[in-house]
Amino acid sequence: MASIIESGWRYLITNFSDFQLACLGSFFIHESVFFLSGLPFIYLERAGWLGKYKIQTKNNSPSAQEKCITRLLLYHFGVNLPVMIFSYPVFKFMGMQSSLPLPSWKVILTQIIFYFILEDFVFYWGHRILHTKWLYKHVHSVHHEYATPFGLTSEYAHPAEILFLGFATIVGPAITGPHLITLWLWMVLRVLETVEAHCGYHFPWSLSNFIPLYGGADFHDYHHRLLYTKSGNYSSTFVYMDWIFGTDTGYRKLKALKSIGDEDNKKQT
């Protein structure tokens, strides 16, 4: 398996420049993973499939979904791609490389764990700041236009927010100067995580059912249902920051009441 990956990587670095791989390659991977993982949730909602796992009963209209996709394409080409291009010199300066040999899985895993920890910390405070009155009204309210989120709404946001919270995702790699394959893997994991958190469905196979402190869709959906400045649940991937600072108390109380209600229903039946 390792030899296959190395052969594929050798083909890439032989036929494309560092700049092409780091900027255009990263953009292509991001768009592919984002839309391929997010679009199915639009079709699930429209078709009504797996409705018993949907967190909210309300559905988004087709026009609202199409508006989201149109704006996303504008933001991705108008904001994300230029950021990738202009940040390339910074990553090169910090030590990013694409040459062989590829880093070991131990190095890749260690760096990605560090990125998750740092991203959770930075994102929490940035997100909490965005829920102050002025910033919510003028910036973050764009993201909250969808009180019933679906996968693609994860990146639907004001351009200023894209830059502001995007810093949380790139600060770890910027510090460590990883191999490009590590950066790509980190990007894929982050995209899949944020799409899942906004998907609007809580399945029996959802990661939050198996990984301690993992937020997931149920945790973040609560954040979207309660608008304005007091929603809580500001965390990104893992929820320990909300637990430490007590900004998930409303969600925990709701879960406790629901659990009691489910137990009463079982006793009655």
UniProtKB/TrEMBL annotation:
Which GO biological process entries does UniProt record here? Answer: lipid biosynthetic process
Q: Where are the transmembrane segments?
A: 19-44, 72-91, 103-125, 162-187
Signal peptide residues are: none
Keyword line: Membrane, Transmembrane, Transmembrane helix
Q: Principal place where this protein is found?
A: membrane
* Residue ranges constituting the Fatty acid hydroxylase domain according to the UniProt record: 113-247
This protein's GO CC annotations:
membrane
| UniProt-listed Pfam families | FA_hydroxylase (PF04116)
User: Where located?
Assistant: Membrane
List the molecular function annotations (GO) for this entry: iron ion binding; oxidoreductase activity
- Per its UniProt record, what InterPro entries does this chain match? Fatty_acid_hydroxylase, Sterol_Desaturase_Related
The answer on whether this UniProt entry bears the keyword Transmembrane helix reads yes
Write out the similarity annotation: Belongs to the sterol desaturase family.
Protein name per UniProt:
Fatty acid hydroxylase domain-containing protein
